[in-house]
Design a protein that fits this description.
- The protein is an alpha/beta fold and 374 residues long.
- It has a domain of 240 residues: Ribonucleoside hydrolase-like (Inosine-uridine Nucleoside N-ribohydrolase, Chain A).
- 33% of the residues lie in helices and 16% in strands.
- It is built from 12 helices and 10 strands.
- A 10-stranded mixed β-sheet has the order 4-3-2-1-5-6-7-10-8-9, sandwiched between helices.
- Helix 2 runs parallel beside helix 11.
- The longest helix has 22 residues.
- It starts with a helix and ends in a 5-residue tail after the last helix.
- Bound molecules: calcium ion.
- Calcium ion (CA) binds next to loops.
- Calcium ion binds next to loops.
């Protein structure tokens, strides 16, 4: 059996269908998750019905980033890319969103103009349980609330929340970004949808890839440490010959821009210290760059995509979840209450990895993006 067949056996039939709601342009894990989803779509392991952009900032740029990745794979069929409901002048924190300026110019749908199409598509689904549409939510949930998709037709996978462990398994109970930026939408979603799983930092925070191999996937980094010089050369059109898949090239450029914009922001803030910001460290305190790191950047959103296909690789708990005013998520066993208590919502949490699930995730990413990960 070839390596490729090995992965085929995991894939369930019929082909799972997806709506992907993403704040691509902020943290880089969205770009990885989208690239992985596009590869799965191309291999006909999943079928993407719509992309929707979420988060503040220029929703057209976000849409173009998806389009850039999409085009790189040379897929001709047209999967609608929809600009989500939030469109503002705020730029993202970690600004690879600006690379959208170089993406294809076209009239992208807006959620308002395309909502009827989406709803019609979803309402016409077969009621068979296996045919539920996967709604992969890897950003704030404003669009999801706005769309009000029929609960009996969809299965929601929400990346977000933290129940006691954050990045790299460290013990802290923090208000996670997606929840913190959409508390009311999160509450609404948890109340509205029964078939809903949270993939929190507790499991997703461990989902890094290993760079520590003799033949590293070279594209993903600034290759020296002359940071200030690097920053002068942030350009999206750098051409480097690689042996990699076409989609890896724009992913590389987005990665680089994200890395350097984090670095730039950090240097501007703390000029005296050259200590790296937390987001550029790999959990062992090292730089995530290939030159000295052994682990990749965060991969929260890729983990949520992986969960949607292989939930058996996670320990899942049926619990009641509460979200406080700061966006901190807490959970209790479902039998913790004698009576219904408001503001605690029944849901499933993929709280930790099972067995060698994490290694399977890492191999899966390497397999789909065709670079070796050990
Ligand atoms: Ca995200």
């Amino acid at each position: 059996m070839s390596k490729s067949d090995n992965y085929k056996q995991y894939v369930k039939k019929p082909i799972p269908e997806y709506i992907i709601d993403t704040d691509i342009g902020d943290d880089i894990d969205d770009a990885f998750a989208i690239a992985l989803a596009i590869r799965l779509h191309k291999k006909q392991d999943i079928r993407i019905l719509f992309f929707i952009t979420s988060g503040h900032g220029n929703s057209e740029y976000r849409a173009r980033l998806i389009h850039i990745l999409w085009k790189a794979e040379g897929i001709l069929e047209n999967v609608p890319i929809v600009r989500g409901m939030t469109d503002s002048n705020q730029m993202s924190n970690c600004n690879y969103m600006a690379l959208g300026a170089f993406g294809p110019k076209q009239n992208y749908h807006t959620l308002e103009s395309h909502l009827t199409n989406i709803l019609t598509n979803v309402h016409e689904r077969n009621m068979d349980m296996k045919d539920k549409i996967n709604v992969l939510c890897i950003g704030p949930l404003d669009n999801i609330k706005k769309m009000n998709l029929p609960p009996e037709k969809v299965r929601l996978i929400l990346m977000g929340g933290c129940f006691g462990r954050s990045f790299d398994g460290s013990e802290e109970h923090i208000p996670e970004y997606n929840v913190r930026n959409g508390i009311e939408s999160w509450k609404w979603v948890l109340q509205t949808y029964d078939d809903c799983t949270i993939v929190p930092l507790d499991s997703a925070g461990l989902g890094r890839l290993s760079w520590s191999n003799p033949n590293p996937p070279a594209p993903f980094i600034p290759d020296d440490f002359n940071y200030k010089d690097k920053i002068k050369h942030i350009r999206p059109n750098i051409q480097i010959q690689t042996q990699h898949l076409p989609i890896v090239e724009p992913l590389r450029i987005m990665y680089k821009q994200w890395y350097l914009s984090n670095l730039k922001k950090h240097i501007m803030k703390k000029n005296k210290s050259m200590e790296l910001p937390h987001i550029l460290k790999d959990g062992q305190g090292r730089d995530i760059s290939l030159a000295c790191g052994v682990n990749s950047n965060i991969q929260f959103d890729s983990v949520a995509l992986f969960y949607s296909l292989y939930p058996e690789q996670f320990k899942c708990q049926q619990v009641k979840v509460h979200i406080n005013d700061e966006g901190v998520t807490e959970k209790l066993p479902t039998n913790a209450f004698q009576e219904e208590v408001p503001e605690w919502y029944n849901t499933i949490v993929a709280i930790e990895w099972k067995g060698n699930g994490l290694q399977k995730f890492q191999q899966w990413v390497g397999h789909l993006l065709e670079f070796p990960i050990y």
